[in-house]
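Data deposition worksheet. Section B asks for the primary sequence of the deposited chain exactly as it was used as input, without tags or linkers unless they were present during the calculation. Section C holds the resulting structure in token form. Section D is free text for depositor observations; keep each observation to a single sentence. Incomplete worksheets are returned to the depositor.
Section A, Depositor: J.P.
Section B:
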Amino acid sequence: MSMRSIGYSFNNAIADIIDNSITAEADLIKIQCLWNGEEPTVEIKDNGKGMSENELIEAMRPGTKSPLSSRSNDDLGRFGLGLKTASFSQCKKLIVKTFQDKLINEASWDLDIVQEQNKWFLDLENSQENTENLKTGTIVRWEKIDTLSKKNIEDAEETFNSMVSNLGKHIGITFHRYINGDKRKINFIVNGIKCEAFDPFFKEKSTPLPIELIKNQLISCEIRGFTLPNKNKCTEKEWDYYAGEEGYLANQGFYLYRNGRLISNPTWFGLERKTPKRKLCRVRIDINNKSDLLWQLDVKKSSAVPPPVVKRRLKKILRSLLSPAERNFNNQARRLTNREINPIWERAIKDRGITYQINRNHPLIKDCLEKLDESLYENFQKIFFLIDNGLPSEGIYADFSDDKNINEIEKSELDYLIKLSSEMINLLSQKEDFDRERAKMSLRTDEPFKKYWELIEEKI
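Section C:
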């Protein structure tokens, strides 16, 4: 029963069965998940080449292939364990029905019977005439699914439905290169709904980097970085969609693919930390099934470790992969560096770091201060001191990193902004070295005017 404790998630277990369907050359894979009261069932049905009776018996035998065995380039298998370990991690009864040469072959394992008889007993149906519509293919069926809580039926059903809902998304990213036809075109359907590919690299608008190759007698590895577009180059829908459920910060890093199938969640493999500056950097790594041992690919095909030769190369090229994304982030943050002619905020570098202070020489502020008596002037200096030293920098940084809109002007405030723009231009143009056009040029580079300058210019 140790096969039940390997640690598959529901999504990873289904993906492992799908790997077998892809290896069997299927181009249509349907997953049907039904609650059926307290006895949920799952069926994975493909139109692959199916199996003969002997092939079925071999497939149902645990550990049928050594990871060192020769296998085809398209084989997504690993140890020959996937069908059994993935299934038994979720259920106690596994039924496999396969169609080939006008015959149906069926076999099943029932762990209750195995435990009762204290031996592995394969229930094998004799070959029978194929009366179903499927000419070739295989159906994997899970019964006695016991991974859900039976203490509260309502909670168990809700959990099951939630798992099924997330399954389509998991298939959409794990097999996106098959769904969109980058590899062999395959359609996936979950409970009647077609799975849509989720390409984490947003190739339509991302900037691809040059391909790096690592190839020798033992390993073949292709590395390609993508710099995702800034928020202002996407529609709001696109930006939210490609963030993924975990967000841009979590989804930066290396995406490892084995024969086009996503293996691991994005990671920097310990070479770098996930930081806001790198959040637009995603790197695709492609390997084949010949170097599984070198990559320490696990049974579940959900994690791997780069071999030393790859890790050394990744270290060398990491800066070139990260730099474009970091430049994008810095460009987005440029407004915080206050390089405008008349900034409200001044940025200064001091011994202990960087400080931001209200610019006392800003024309509007300076004009106001000059009109104050000594008592009010001192009070304003105290207020400025509190504002300068009470800037919520950590909160601003966190919000900015999460791409939240900061200090957006409401529509109701636009008229006030336009009026203020006119007053500022009049004030600036009174200076000896400023005419009206230069005053406008100064203002259009200044926050909060520059973001709405086209609208302002129409009105003034």
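Section D:
Residues 335-340 have pLDDT under 50 and may be disordered.
Residues 209 and 320 are 9 Å apart (CA to CA).
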